[in-house]
Predict the 3D structure of the following.
Amino acid sequence: MFGPVDRERPAPDCAPSLAAVEAGGPPFALALPLHARYPAPCSGPPLVDRVRLPPPRLLVRCGGEWVEAGEAAGEALEWLVPCGDAQAAGRTEAVTRAATLACAAAALAACAAQARRGAV
């Protein structure tokens, strides 16, 4: 992998990365798992971010340098990645923060109850 890889960062905050594979010789098959990063909220419908994946390129090492030998046959792949509704972002953030605070309060209350019983 070339470039920074942080699967948990949202897509708008990420730099592109590149996957490269060195093979001993043909024939070979390659399967790469793809992970979609969280796209920025979008205005829909449809609530999807379109990610274009071009066909792979073939590079050959000649005299210590990589030379492009061609592009694989086929068309670019368009991947539709679901994204959040930009109009609901404010409500979603408020509910997420409220749930986080409620869970933190419940955890603190449970710890306090255990401390009163002398278990902690």
The radius of gyration is 24 Å. Residues 86-120 form one domain. The mean pLDDT is 83.
